[in-house]
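Lecture notes, unit on protein representations.

Consider one protein chain, 119 amino acids long.
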Amino acid sequence: QVQLVESGGGLVQAGGSLRLSCEASRSIVSIDTLGWYRQAPGKQRELVAVITTGGSTNYASSVKGRFTISRDNAKNTAYLQMNSLKPEDTAVYYCNVREFVDNSWRAYWGQGTQVTVSS
C-alpha cells in the first residue's frame, strides 16, 4: 500500500507558475512509474506527465515544454513544475503511482489538488 498526498495547488493568473508535490508514505525507489493526471469539470481524467524509475519522462502534448515532472527518491516525493499556465490547465490534479508486484500491476491515487488559472 502507498498513501499519496498532493499539495501546491491554488489560484494563479495566466502565465504564472505553480509547483505540485506528491509525497508518498513509503520509499518510491521501487515504484515503476510516477505520474500526474488531471480532470477538468465535465471531462475525463487525462495523463499530464509520467516519470519512470530510470528517469524517462513522457508528457501530454498540451503541456510539453511548459511542465516538468521530477522525482526525489530521498524525499519519497514527486513534483510537477508548471510554467506558463493557461486557463485550460484548470483542473484537479492527481498523483498516481504504479508498481509491478507479485506478477500484477498495482496503482494508487492521491486525493487531488485544485489548480485554477484565471485569464
